[in-house]
Design goal:
This protein has helices spanning 11-23, 52-61, 75-78, 82-102, 137-156, 182-191, 211-223, 243-251, 266-270, 280-286, 294-315, and strands at 3-6, 29-33, 43-46, 66-69, 107-113, 125-126, 159-165, 167-169, 196-198, 206-210, 233-235, 239-241, 259-261, 276-277. The protein is α/β, with parallel strands linked by helices and 317 residues long. It folds into two domains: 3-166 and 209-235, 3-Layer(aba) Sandwich (Rossmann fold); 182-206 and 238-277 and 292-312, no CATH class. α1 (11-23) links the parallel β1 and β2. The protein starts with a strand and ends with a helix. The structure holds (3R)-3-hydroxy-L-norvaline (VAH). This is Nucleoside-diphosphate-sugar epimerase.
Length: 317
């Protein structure tokens, strides 16, 4: 087992790289990103996934057997430069698929997103088979990614699997350029006793997932026997909440938290996404079962961030 991760220093990559090292071993993981900001307890390389030759060489020389392709521009940042986002998100995934095909890498993981759906999905619990009508470049690139994954599976017998992640909430690192980033930022402000300015309306409900559950789902999906897999893209969610719902939950622990609502361009993106997802196929096919609801996730996030705050204070004392 030799796993290559692209985008290893992103919000998902940071947690997933650690989890894969713990599950397999530090010799089984090669963590890469465009810029190396720190090092994991495994081989850590600088890699530009837009460069097929460089990617092909890493796959070949490290005898990679699985690739987790996490590098991508997220929804909000992606709307600032649509064509560049389309080019980057798609050329990197093409390179991963081609490097995998040319080096007989059988298994590839591609992170899809609730962004594959459009505003017509917003008035119900969105089923896995609901029509995909994305209205962000990020969402369009995720639909294209799922379709290309299906093409390589059929044409070349590869085993590319995708999860449609909701907003991810984690304490290990900040998200970057997403529409759901508020759900992480609010915890950091609450822990510091600062007011929080929210860029979404207080009643904008979205599907969300605590990172531990996202990691569990990813590893469970990739470990599942091929015969259990009935589709390329799986809906998953842990909970569904709005800014005022998470603020209320945090106030059970930090009563003074003040939130000011100042919607910006991300409001329109959020309103084009589902309120909640039906993840029955993931539950039926490979045993998906979230552990964290809003209450437990809030308690865990506040505990972890408070721990980090105390550690930092001690380190700088
Ligand atoms: C984003 N966090 O906001 C990502 C995610 C469901 C949202 O894909 O773009």
């Amino acid at each position: 087992m030799k796993i290559l991760i692209t985008g290893a220093f992103g919000q998902l990559g940071t947690a997933l790289t650690e989890a894969l090292i713990n599950k397999y071993s530090n010799n089984s993981v090669v963590a890469t990103d465009l810029h190396i900001r720190d090092t994991f307890d495994c081989e850590t390389l600088e890699l530009d996934a837009t460069n097929l030759e460089a990617l092909d060489e890493v796959v070949r020389t490290h005898q990679i057997t699985q690739i987790y392709h996490l590098a991508a521009v997220l929804s909000a940042k992606g709307e600032l430069e649509p064509l560049k986002t389309w080019d980057l998100n798609n050329s990197t995934f093409f390179n991963v698929l081609e490097a995998a095909r040319l080096n007989d890498v059988r298994k590839v993981f591609f992170p899809s997103s609730i962004a594959v759906f459009g505003a017509d999905a917003r008035n119900q619990i969105t089923s896995n088979d609901f029509p995909l009508n994305p209205t962000t470049v990020y969402g369009i690139s995720k639909v294209a990614g799922e379709q290309w994954a299906n093409y390589y599976n059929i044409k070349y017998g590869m085993d590319v699997r995708c999860l449609r992640y909701p907003g991810l909430i984690s304490y290990q690192s900040f998200p970057g350029g997403g529409t759901t980033d508020y759900a992480v930022d609010i915890f950091h402000k609450a822990i510091k006793g600062e007011d929080f300015e929210c860029y979404l309306r207080k009643d904008t409900q979205l599907p969300m997932l605590y990172m531990d559950d996202a990691i569990d789902a990813t590893i469970r999906l990739m470990d599942a026997p091929k015969k259990a897999i009935t589709r390329v893209g799986y809906n998953i969610q842990g909970m569904s909440f709005s800014p005022e719902m998470i603020a209320e939950e945090i106030r059970k622990n930090i009563p003074k938290l003040t939130v000011v609502y100042n919607p910006d361009n991300r409001q329109k993106i959020a309103e084009s996404w589902p309120v909640a997802l039906d993840d029955t196929p993931a539950r039926m096919d490979w045993g998906w079962e979230p552990e964290y609801d809003l209450k437990r996730m809030t308690e865990e996030m506040l505990y972890r961030l408070d721990q980090k705050k105390r550690t930092n204070a001690f380190m700088h004392a």
